[in-house]
Amino acid sequence: MGDFMKRLILASAIGMAAFAAAPSQAADIVTDCVLLGIDDIVPNAEKCVGYYDKNVLKASAGDFAKQEEVDALKLLGLGDGTLGVIKVLEKLDNSGNFVRPLNGLTYIGVHYGAGNGPVANNGGVTAFYRFNAGANLDAISFQNGSVSGVALYATGAAVPEPAAWALMLGGFGLLGASMRRRQRTTVTFA
After folding, report:
1. Coil, strand or helix: which one is 147?
2. How far is it, in rounded angstroms, from Cα 55 to Cα 146?
3. In what order do the strands lie in the sheet with 147-154?
4. CB of 45 closer than 8 Å to CB of 131
5. Is the pLDDT assigned to residue 13 strictly greater than 70?
6. Alpha helices in the chain (DSSP H)
7. Which pTM was predicted?
8. Count of CB atoms within 10 A of residue 148's CB?
9. For residues 109 and 92, what is the distance between their CA atoms, to the nearest angstrom?
10. In 3-state terms, what secondary structure has residue 163?
């Protein structure tokens, strides 16, 4: 009976491994945008991943990015490919006018509809970009038409103004001065 149990356990382990090892379905790339897509947006991208077949921007603003989005962003250097880590900060319909200011390294996804996009494809294409937004950029522009969706995934923190820095440093100085200047108390016993 020991030999039968070993075979049964081995067979069930192999069966479970076959189901557990099913790969996720990645989106098909129509044309590689590594060289072609760098100047699709202004400011120009540092890196581009795509053009994926059809619309890959599935998550709504405030939701976690879907697996296809996470996989593409990992290729750009954002995240490690784990679901439930990257959130969509903003989702725009057909413009590049963001509510929050963009600062430093910024990661976006753009879906170009079937119209006059960068690559002719029935159903459009989606590309993901990493670019340096500089400081407090509120809009980007597109070199191609038919933009039908833009998703913002990450951007740097805003740089405070010099006056805010001066106030903060002054506050720390006053706090330090008040800590050094303690009133001395003498304890007397009766």
Report:
1. strand
2. 13
3. 47-53, 125-132, 105-112, 147-154, 90-92
4. yes
5. no
6. 2-20, 67-76, 162-180
7. 0.68
8. 18
9. 10
10. helix
